[in-house]
Design a protein that fits this description.
By secondary structure, the chain is an alpha+beta fold. It contains seven helices and ten strands.
């Protein structure tokens, strides 16, 4: 079976790379992210509405996906049928020629649903030095991180002490949540990250060979032992994706 075709959007190839390096299983990605051609937008929206009615308690994230571009994908957050109706009206009148596919996924709204991202500098000290910075937010989407400090949900930024190589708190916002519970969730995430040391090392070294100077790994967590990496970014994503596509077209590794 082909890993992908020439029509596969560049954004999807980011998950293919994660699968190859053992950061995220592509089978899990395929069951989590529902993909449709832009011509099937009504079918996609209908499926979301049906699922909303049958399975309350979820939030839905819709993305419009370019064939080439992998940044700044328009996205919509839906938590009820009013959101769905508003989104449908916007999508039906929106210009669609720039996009090749429409995707959606859903997240269960639990009290400890947490997202974050970890920054690694891909310099001569990688991977011995480990991550340099970690941002964690409790809420429905990782995109909430970008809204800080204008947040009404718990958020924390951790940085590494250069001498002791230990995490320290740079910014924190409790937003009315239980302090001890939130910090326990943060601690559990810190414990989980080193378990992926080999995978992080392998993908980081390859990205460094591609000319990248930093790597950010995005993750989700719903408690201890329920930690998953979900995406990655670098300062040279498009070059990396194009190189990956050429490698597999020429026969792969």
């Amino acid at each position: 079976m082909e890993r992908f075709t020439k029509y596969t959007p560049n954004k999807w190839l980011k998950y293919d790379i994660m699968d190859y390096f053992g950061i995220r299983d592509i089978k899990e990605v395929c069951t989590t992210i529902h993909r449709y051609l832009m011509s099937d937008i009504e079918k996609c929206l209908h499926e979301i509405r049906e699922d909303m009615v049958k399975n309350p308690g979820y939030i839905y994230i819709i993305k419009l996906v370019y064939a080439e571009k992998i940044y700044c994908l328009p996205n919509y957050l839906l938590s009820n049928l009013d959101d769905w109706e508003k989104c449908r009206k916007e999508l039906l009148i929106r210009e669609k020629k720039s996009f090749s596919e429409i995707w959606y996924c859903r997240n269960e709204l639990t009290s400890n649903l947490t997202f974050g991202r970890i920054l690694f500098c891909l310099d001569e000290l990688f991977p011995r030095k480990g991550p340099n910075k970690m941002e964690i937010v409790r809420g429905a989407s990782a995109r909430l991180i970008e809204k800080y400090p204008k947040l009404d949900v718990p958020f924390i930024t951790l940085t590494k002490n250069g001498i002791a190589n230990e995490w320290s708190i740079r910014d924190v916002l409790y937003a009315g949540c239980n302090h001890d519970r939130f910090m326990k969730d943060v601690y559990n995430i810190i414990v989980e990250v080193p378990r992926y040391y080999r995978q992080i090392r392998d993908i980081g070294e390859w990205l460094c060979d591609c000319g990248c100077t930093w790597m950010s790994l995005e993750f989700s967590s719903t408690g201890y032992d329920k930690f998953h990496f979900i995406d990655w970014d670098t300062d040279n994503d498009l070059y990396v994706i194009k190189k990956w596509r050429r490698l597999w077209i020429n026969g792969g590794y």
